[in-house]
């Protein structure tokens, strides 16, 4: 079992990554925690929450995984989570560093602007 020191070391390594690389690492891990039973499917995802000053509530968008095929094996541009879009298949708002990605819920391709 990992110690607190091991987890701190891993957290430091993850925090040192640029956003697009962090998203790629989490794309490899989070879907492994998907559970399905009794007609209910639960997926662990990465989300971006935006809160505007003097406005109540949050804008919440799921982080789409970059379409590595579209980017010839790459991760897309290194620009932070500035691209916004919507998954037509599962009706989910998504964000990404890339203009082409995959919905983290249903796996459909998404086009972001």
General description of the model:
- With 113 residues, this protein is an alpha+beta fold.
- The protein has one domain.
- Helix content is 20%, strand content 29%.
- The chain has two helices and nine strands; from the N terminus they run H-H-E-E-E-E-E-E-E-E-E.
- The strands form three sheets. A four-stranded mixed β-sheet has the order 3-4-7-6, with no helix packed on it. A three-stranded antiparallel β-sheet has the order 5-8-9. Strands 1-2 form a two-stranded antiparallel sheet.
- The longest helix is centred in the first third of the chain and has 12 residues.
- The mean pLDDT is 95.
Structural domain count: 1
Distance between the termini: 43 Å
Computed over alpha carbons, the radius of gyration is 15 Å
Mean pLDDT: 95
Shape: globular
**Helix fraction bin:** 10-25%
Spatial ordering of strands, largest sheet:
3-4-7-6
Biggest β-sheet description: 4 strands, mixed
What is the number of beta strands?
Answer: 9
Low-confidence stretches: none
Class from helix and strand fractions: alpha+beta
Percentage beta strand:
25-35%
Helix-strand sequence:
HHEEEEEEEEE
The helix tally amounts to 2
